[in-house]
Amino acid sequence: MQEGSLSCLPSQGQRILLPEEARTEWQALLDKIQAAVRQASRLMLDASDIRSKTRQKTSRADLVTTYDVAIQKELQMMLNRLCPDLGFLGEEGEPGTLVNRDSFFVVDPIDGTTNFVYDYRHSAISVGLILAGEPVLACCFDPYLDECFTALKGLGAKLNGAPLQIGRQELSGSVILFGTSPYNPETRPKSYRYLQALHEEGRDVRRSGSAVLDLAYVAAGRGDLFFESHLSPWDYGAAALLVKEAGGKVTRLDGQPLRYDRGGSVLAGNPRVWQQAQEIWASLD
């Protein structure tokens, strides 16, 4: 619970009510955000000649399209209209700038931009709401499959309205999802050592190109474990809540809590497989 004045959020006096204290009001806000995300997704589905509208940012692995920028602009306008008191952190913001408030929307307009450029059709729009440094609302939408993963803190995670429950596998029976942190090549040697160690202990591995969907799939039981050595807050600001609300555990690789005002590593899975995987990571030091 947070003290302060955020007029768009349910409150009692100066105290902001959490979702389990004001279920109806928070669900109404989530419904409006989901509608805004679905509307913005039309820009992805109607996109054409994408490669000619693509440029590199920091490296050849770091791409942005005019559609990323347009979707973020549309979402920022819609979210500001809904909640003008909240801050905003988006992937396509000014380099080096982060929010200066502890309550803000965190947005990835197209997670899996390289997939989008290559017409791989595995990308998502992600919107999270961070309140007093913790995620309380999540909406992650895959427009290609028409799958919307949502969560409210304390009220569970859902896929198109149906409750999600994380898998119960141990590491020996796990499918491991991972990312290669292409913007941080210095992390690759240890990441690949870790992947090899997990692969030897687990069932199989998958690399999809979208951390948002990887985390959503762990929440849905479509994968059992996810790790990446470096991500930004917009990559996990919403999807981490999906994992938590589906019964999972999500932290940094060293077991420390995630930060939502700066990036870091991510490890997510059901509590048992998370523990096994974290011990393997620690053994690599």
Describe this structure in words.
With 285 residues, the protein is an alpha+beta fold. It has two domains: 2-163, Fructose-1,6-Bisphosphatase, subunit A, domain 1 (Fructose-1,6-Bisphosphatase, Chain A, domain 1), CATH 3.30.540.10; 171-283, D-Maltodextrin-Binding Protein, domain 2, CATH 3.40.190.80. The chain contains eight helices and 17 strands. The protein has helices at residues 23-45, 66-82, 113-117, 188-201, 211-219, 233-236, 239-245, 271-283, and strands at residues 2-3, 11-12, 15-16, 54-56, 63-65, 87-90, 104-111, 124-131, 134-142, 147-152, 157-159, 162-163, 175-178, 204-206, 225-231, 249-251, 264-269. The strands form four sheets. The chain has a seven-stranded mixed β-sheet, sandwiched between helices. It is globular and about 50 Å long. The termini are far apart. 44% of the residues are buried. Mean pLDDT is 93; it is low at 1-5.
SSE topology sketch:
Blueprint: E1 2-3, E2 11-12, E3 15-16, H1 23-45, E4 54-56, E5 63-65, H2 66-82, E6 87-90, E7 104-111, H3 113-117, E8 124-131, E9 134-142, E10 147-152, E11 157-159, E12 162-163, E13 175-178, H4 188-201, E14 204-206, H5 211-219, E15 225-231, H6 233-236, H7 239-245, E16 249-251, E17 264-269, H8 271-283
Question: Which short descriptors sum up this protein?
Answer:
single chain, 285 residues, alpha+beta, D-Maltodextrin-Binding Protein, domain 2, 2 domains, seven-stranded mixed β-sheet, five-stranded mixed β-sheet, 8 helices, 17 strands, 32% helix
